Amino acid sequence: MxxxxxxxxxxxxxxxxxxxxxxxAAVSPRLKRCAVAVGVDKLERTPGGLGAYLxxxxxxxxxxxxxxxxxxxxxxxxxxxxxxxxxxxLDRVGQALEQGVEGVGILSITAREPEYDxxxxxxxxxxxAECRCWLCAxxxxxxxxxxxxxxxxxxxx
Length: 157
Known about the structure:
By secondary structure, the protein is of the alpha+beta class.
């Protein structure tokens, strides 16, 4: 889910953390500094797709679905920084997430200690954030309800 991944990348980047959306080979094995690869590991949604009518907000019809997701953040550190460098970056990521991610309600955060990855020649630690949010789409009441603009909301207000 692109919107959820981007919300985490944006929040971490705002905290001065080098974060990228996770993709195959997104991070080079020759790391020069710590990096965080962000991806959605599990995603559950309520049945019915975007057909759930939520009402009118600011003159626009609002549709949406409730999502529960596990966002996986792989913290990678260069071998030269050792496990301590990776651990320090893991702590920074945790602190940034405690400040919140716009549009996302974080229910819990769990982390595993850094371990050396001989394939990537780096230290790696994994942090998982259990989240709840709404994926909302707006349509003007007088227009054909084409849903093109999606917003993440941690809670409906």
